[in-house]
Specification:
alpha/beta; Carbamate kinase; Archaeosine Trna-guanine Transglycosylase, Chain: A, domain 4; eight-stranded mixed sheet; globular; binds adenosine-5'-diphosphate; binds the ligand N[C@@H](CCC(=O)OP(=O)(O)O)C(=O)O
Length: 362
């Protein structure tokens, strides 16, 4: 296979696994399993992030429409995840491969201890040539506790596991330079780090069973690529999509990866919700941080500090218009930092090694 990826995360979206009537598409699942088997035979590590619990539940239980939507989703996912994983177990079993179920919530990525426990679990599974199949724990993840969609989850898994590549399978050939249904639009094959106007050609329209949509998918992809992981978006309904993609024989969208970031930066990149405080910086500090030179944030460039944080907590860095510049680990507590705002010759408030810059800015 041509693309030199060793550790690959494959995200299979709801639309790829579901037929138009909302039921799971077993033929497609079987076809994807065959390709993953082929990739495994090349000695590569594969982690699957698979949606499909709700669709599988739908094939087993009919729930009256009068039931609450959240409770219905919990019920369908609780029943369906068992069927989904049994389907994968039977299909991989035919090829003498063992798979494992890993159900996670957003909380597991926020807490550094949980995060490391998860990393260790994936590590031991991969060492034993087992294919982890990850999904959100839909039974306990409801409303605001949920991931935006499984793309967000796949991005987190790719970052946590230092993957070489994240392959996102959707129901379109990639990101188009306009509405994919309109004649004359075509797939953008490469999206570089400096692409900032994605929203100008990606609509917020979602596919039938999708949750986040292409715009959220592309923001996640850019963030993950900024950490040094190649991200591809391809059409999961195409025959031999995975093997052809890895052989570079398929049109798809690739987000160019940057130089690999450290494990700490990878964790920080997805920690916006865990920030304990906000540090506002002036234009000069923003220019310095986003320049190609590795620069730490000094208190001389800070204009305001909000929220109470301790040394070691995550803080959001925002510019004078409140736009997110990055996320970092504070070297001072908020009281101490506030006392020294604007002072020169102090040690940095955020050291470069513990700073992740928003790809929109960098
Ligand atoms: N510029 C674009 N390029 C490709 N797809 C787009 C674009 N703008 C909007 N879309 C929509 O995004 C959908 C895929 O996203 P999503 O609904 O999240 O799918 P999935 O369930 O596979 O995660 C496509 O079916 C398409 O309708
Ligand atoms: N966790 C849910 C799927 C979540 C979801 O829809 O994500 P996506 O496939 O990215 O649109 C399930 O297994 O049904």
């Amino acid at each position: 296979m041509a693309l030199p990826y060793n550790r690959i995360i494959i995200k299979i979206g709801s639309n790829v696994l579901t037929q138009a009537n909302g039921m799971p598409d077993l033929d497609r699942i079987a076809h994807l399993v065959e390709q993953i088997t082929e990739i495994k035979k090349q000695g590569k590590e594969v982690i699957l992030v698979s949606s499909g619990a709700v669709a599988s539940g739908r094939s087993l239980v009919t729930v009256s429409e009068k039931f609450d939507a959240v409770a219905t989703r919990q019920l369908l996912a609780a029943v369906g995840q068992v069927k989904l994983i049994n389907t994968y177990t039977a299909l991989f079993g035919k090829h003498d491969l063992v798979c494992a179920q890993v159900l996670v919530t957003k909380e597991d990525f926020r807490d550094r201890q949980h995060y490391q426990n998860m990393q260790n679990c994936f590590q031991v599974l991969l060492q034993h040539h087992i294919i982890p199949i990850v999904n959100e724990n839909d039974v306990v993840s409801v409303t605001e506790l949920m991931f935006t969609d499984n793309d967000e989850l796949a991005g987190l898994v790719a970052s946590a596991l230092n993957a070489d590549a994240l392959l996102i399978l959707s129901n379109v050939d990639g990101i188009y330079n306009g509405n994919p249904k309109e004649e004359g639009t075509k797939v953008i094959e490469e999206i570089g780090h400096d692409a900032t106007d994605l929203a100008s050609f990606i609509s917020t329209q979602r596919s039938q069973f999708g949750r986040g949509g292409m715009l959220t998918k592309s923001y996640m992809a850019r963030k993950v690529a900024a950490l040094g992981i190649a991200v591809h978006i391809a059409n999961g309904t195409t025959q031999n999509v995975l093997t052809r993609l890895l052989d570079e024989e398929l049109i798809n969208t690739r987000f160019t990866p940057k130089k690999a970031a450290s494990g700490k930066k990878k964790w920080l990149a997805h920690s916006e919700d865990s920030a304990k405080g906000v540090v506002q910086i002036n234009e000069g500090a923003k220019q310095a941080l986003t320049s190609p030179k590795a620069t730490s944030l000094l208190l001389v460039g800070v204009t305001a500090i909000r929220g109470a944080f301790k040394k070691g907590d995550i803080v959001k860095l925002v510019d004078e218009t409140e736009k997110l510049v990055g996320l970092g680990i504070a070297e001072y507590d908020s009281e101490n930092a506030t006392e020294h705002i604007g002072h020169k010759e102090q040690r940095p408030l955020v050291h470069y090694d513990y700073l992740f810059l928003n790809p929109d800015m960098a």
